[in-house]
Amino acid sequence: MLCLAVLLILAVLLSLSWGQMKIPFSHVMAALLQGIAPGVADAGVPADQAAVLWHIRLPRTAVGLMVGAGLGISGAVLQGIFANPLADPGIIGVSSGASVGAIVAIALGLSSLSLFALPVFALLGALLAVLLTVSLSMRHGRIPVLTLLLAGVVVGMFLSAVTAAILTAMNENKMQEYLFWTIGGLDYRRWDHVLLAIGPMGTGIAVMLLLARHLNILVLGDTEARAVGMPVTLYRMALLLLASLTTAAGVCISGNIGFVGLVVPHMMRLLVGPDHRRLLPASLLAGGCFLVFCDAAGRVIFSGMEVRAGIMTAFIGTPYFLYLLRKQQRNLSD
Prior knowledge:
Elements: H1 2-17, H2 25-36, H3 47-82, H4 94-107, H5 117-137, H6 145-168, H7 172-183, H8 191-210, H9 212-219, H10 222-227, H11 232-254, H12 260-272, H13 276-300, H14 309-333
């Protein structure tokens, strides 16, 4: 945990320093100190660097920390619920629902009228998709894991078809706007985006951390959990909705960023073990660190060109996903 905290601080400093305007670490620290405690000391930082730091890179980094942490811990929770290391937050229709909400806002022209229109519609779409998935899979007050998984796949396919149908009726400018959102990235994020998502994401993360011990019992199986008096359906539903809310709030301000919720929890499980009391905090820190670093690296990997965070996470996550898939196939064959 200490190593993860140090890596997280390093990733934040790199994110604040790297970019088209290179800001020395000394200026970053001085500007932060001056902003936190004004009048204590003369920062000595040029005005243009201070403006870039406080109005562009700090909100961008804050969004990256929130989204990465939320996706990391939500992925760990969903992998525990499904007992599958290949599960990620998009498996229950969150990403597909957010895409439908976003494209509706773009098609109606609402995204050009208000900064909050697209994030709010994406959040509502994601939550409605999750509720539809849960309602389709619930039988006699219980939610079978396999049925929930299949319902998520079906709902995701249906919502993808809805998105494609709306896309065919949109003009080129609106299609470009949707493509820009669906790739996922942290550019052009403002403090308004931070304020929009910090409430639901903070609440979801805090409650999931408190329920880590209960998730350990759920992983043992329904029979064992009921044997110790746990209301399995209640806790499974609560954890599922919390993970969905956290993921939806993150997706609505950053677009669809894949592989964070898949790769990070699995890597942390190898490092800290399967106990969710350690796995959830580790996934929280590592998720924030991973996304912030990917975003910072995307700004400097090519001179004069920025690679969006969603592309960077896919480049890094895809080979690891294929490795997990291959490893699982070998285990099944053995």
